[in-house]
Amino acid sequence: MIPGMTAGVRQEPREATRPRTPRRTRLPALLALLAGLAGVGYRLALLLADVPPGNSDEATMGLAALHIARGEDFPVWFYGQAYMGTLEAYLAAPLVALAGPSVLVLRLPTLALYALFLALSWRLTRRLGGDRWYALLVVAVLALGSDRVLKNQLIAGGGYPELNPGGVAVALLTVGLCAGGSRGLSRRAVVDGPAARLALPPGGSEPAARLPVRAGASGLARWAAWGLVAGLLLWVDPLILPFVLALGAVLVLWRRRELVGRAGAALAGGLLLGAAPMLLDSLRHGRDPLAAVLTASGADAAASWGERLHGGLVLGPPLAMGFCSPGHCAGWQLWWAPTFLVLLLLAAIAAWRTLRRPAPPVSPAAPEAASVASADLGEFPFAANDKSPRSGGGPADVPGEWASAAVRLALLAAAAAVLAAYALSNAAGRAPMESARYLSVLAVAMPALLWPLWSAARRAGLWPRPAKPYQPGEPAGTGRAGHHLGDLAGSDPAGQHLGELAGSDRPGYRHVGDPESIIPSAGGRKRIRAAGVTAVAVLAGMLGTGAVATAGAVGTVPATHAEAERHRILVDALGDLNLRHVRAGYWTCNRLAFASGEEVRCAVVDDELRPGFDRLPEYRRAVDADPGAAWVAPAGSPLAARLDGRLGPGPDGLRVVDVPGWRIYLPRR
Predict the structure, then answer these.
(1) Burial (Cβ within 10 Å: 0-12, 13-18, ≥19) of residue 245
(2) Which 3-state string (H, E, C) describes 216-248?
(3) Region entry Disordered: which residue ranges (predicted)?
(4) For residues 284, 285, 290 and 291, what is the CA-based torsion angle, rounded to 10 degrees?
(5) Is the preceding omega at residue 493 within 30 degrees of 0, hence cis?
(6) Is the distance from CB of 640 to CB of 659 less than 8 angstroms?
(7) Rounded to an integer, what distance in angstroms lies between the CA atom of residue 26 and that of residue 382?
(8) Is the pLDDT of residue 649 over 90?
(9) Residue 131 clears pLDDT 70, i.e. is over it
(10) Is 412 helix (H, G, I), strand (E, B) or coil?
């Protein structure tokens, strides 16, 4: 080297030019994958064992799939009503065409929808700022399967299996569109929005300059996808409406300028396409699906306010979230009801506080960096050391935090609206065990609902925390691994034990408990620790209660499989007797028709032998035209007792053929 050439040149340490990125374990991702596979495998095993039990409503959807597969009919609505779209029938139709009608074939698409729900929930949890351990927790909770949860997820009876994956997809698209809306803009444009106004400090003023946002900056395809999925969900079942409205409100607040241009047109086009079956049928026949839903919700059969509130607020959350045994809730399983309401409130407060947080000051050189970092937020970024979305990278990432908090708040508000509407309905008071299926959509809000528990456990040091990437020039030992336990998000250690963990991964953010920040008092550390222990206890209680309920569902397998086998014997017996037309109860009729591939057609009767509700009126016409039509009733049922009175000789006399669990009554000829 020539002498003097190094004069005035300061040699940098090698670490400054080659930042170290600590190796991060893939254990939580691997465990989440195993938990998801276990959840799917558990449900597949139950389907092979005929669990959950089949019913006539599911068979009605199966008949729609059979008609679609044959090209005979393309129904818009569940047969016999003007609401509840037949998406499940269209999904199952190709399988029915290939393998023939069976309950297993009908449920394979719903199993695939459940697997999609798990995958999207993991992704949404990560996009909302959760680390891999928190996403593992969410997947583990959703992998459990009590009796009520299994019925909601697997029975192809209309609506419920599609709502959860669809709702999570809309939430994921919303956070992507909102967090990605600031690409290519200056910092002034980034903070010029509803979140910025919420975050203004007392006495602050709005940014003076506003830069226009280019329509379609996030990609018109994502806008169209949001509308398409939302439209399909509204056609399938209006129960998802609160989530669509809440997430749509976030889009309007964040991206309203683009909604008046091409982006809005793409969203509207997707929405119209997804809801096209419902809209076209309403225009053609003058039907109102929303009015039909309200009429069918039990509004004509009153329940007392005490019954409604007990069924809606006490029984509803434990049943919907999978914490009850098959067919009933034990007293000890009801602990989740008040816990759910408390978590709902705490999580909403945490999200609101994030929205109110002021944007940190930036240096004059920051706007350019802000635009680059914000651009990453819209493209599902992954850090080099973790492949995880950044929950904060300094001031530039604040819009992404705001967007995530807004989506969490929207999910929680929608969950509260669904719960309130259910608690006010007569269905909650009259039949809470069955009508709790209306609360199945609460699972969409799980990544937001458990946020306070995760935050409290993290602050108390009771939860694994990710290592912070090494920063150039940073002294050794000051990374995330060297942080003290008991970090707090913000400067209020006494009031945020179960609140928001905000900016935990932001370089340069001063964490309470860090060596360079304010150290909490001994009393504050005790409160933080107590809150963390409480949070871990609640999480353990959730997993334990859910596991007990899941074991209860497994315990029903032998009886349910035996009943399904008896039903198959009944169908075979009808074929052996060459019977093509029968009369039976509602919960028997369409099940026979679907299992036989419509070789048997059935007219519904009540226990007094009077005509009942036929979802396919053509079946009754065919049965009435056959003088040799038989009767079918479960052994020991009121209908069987009534028909037993007609046994014997005479013009109206019947003779009986017994099969396991059933009685077939034949007219005397």
Answers:
(1) middle
(2) CCCCHHHHHHHHHHHHHHHHHCHHHHHHHHHHH
(3) 1-22, 467-516
(4) 150
(5) no
(6) no
(7) 14
(8) no
(9) yes
(10) helix
